Amino acid sequence: MKQTQQGKGNVFGTAKNPLLILELANNHNGSVDHGKTIIDRAAEAISGLEFDAAIKFQYRNLDTLIHPQFIGNHSYKYIKRFEETRLNDDQFAELIHHSREKGFSVACTPFDEASIEKVVEHGFDYLKVASAYSTDWPLLTQVVDANLPTVVSTGGLSIRDLDRSVVFLSKRVHELALMHCVAVYPTPDDQLALNRLDLMRDRFPGIALGYSTHERQDNYLAVGLALAKGAHIFERHIAEDDGTIPVNAYSSGSDHLRLWAESLRDAIAMTAGMDHSAWANSEEQSAVRELRRGVYARHRIDADSEVDDSDVFFAIPVLEGQVTANDWSKVETKTAASHIEEHEALTQSNVEISHVSDAVRDIIEQTHELLK
């Protein structure tokens, strides 16, 4: 595992070296020791995989976030969960320090303005905006002031709201990433809507994309599909069973996390080079060439004479340095550079080809780029 350093290189990772955001959320269950256990096991789970990774926390100033009349009212599930897992600043500081000791960067989702101030004060590397707050304009105004590398989840957003959020933030935040998210916990396979990444990639070119995963623990396919669609930030909830509160269905224990991360590693290997138009596999090219037809002289061809289709035939095998049928275009002019005997192979040394088609192709490609 490699620790991401803010401001060095691409802070949001790349297709070949994605960023993992491991969401601790409230799965520490209000215990620093249990939180450390989760962090330790997460570090072990992704060891040797060479991913940049961050542990993500959630900050809430519960004294002001919860309406005074509803404090302690546990008929509301989120109030109950937040109050029962509350940590103070010193406890969070201990977990942040422990995360860094284990080689992680740290990220945080603030749920109110006071928490944004603490995110800055506590030196987080990333600020994450939850889907529910991605159009919370009072909160986003202070997110802009923090101006940290900012990842915005987009669960439940209409296209109009997505556009509004991106327009507002992209002009004000130096480093911005969008994260496809389905805010259903856990998300059934037929609701993952991974094609939304295609829409976001086309609609917001130049903005880094991610995928916040809420599918079931044993779904190891979706992360690779998301990578192929352009995501290179992957958020996964992490947890461990402490014997009191069961792990929820969308959080990964260390065993699931390892398999999930290995699936991502394999997807990277299978999609390597997908972002490079000049990508070539020399072994593949050699294998393909061996199946091509070589160009052979039908009869003796004199030096300096023009060679046309009636002078040659195409057959296997193709020899080293031989011109192939794939190189034999009607728009090219071919001239014998030396005498070529009947049935002799035409090679790069005994025939000269004008390569007019290459010049035409270059003009077409340049025109295409210009039109784009």
Question: What does this protein structure show overall?
Answer:
There is one protein chain. It is built from twelve helices and 14 strands. Helix 8 (196-203) links the parallel strand 6 (176-181) and strand 7 (208-213). Helix 1 packs parallel to helix 4. It has helices at residues 32-45, 62-65, 77-84, 89-101, 113-121, 137-146, 159-170, 196-203, 222-228, 254-271, 282-290, 356-371, and strands at 19-23, 52-59, 105-110, 126-129, 150-153, 176-181, 208-213, 233-238, 251-252, 294-297, 306-307, 312-315, 334-336, 351-353. Mean pLDDT is 91; it is low at 4-9. The strands form three sheets. It has an eight-stranded parallel beta barrel, surrounded by six helices. The chain has a three-stranded antiparallel β-sheet with strand order 11-13-14, with no helix packed on it. It is α/β, with parallel strands linked by helices and 372 residues long.
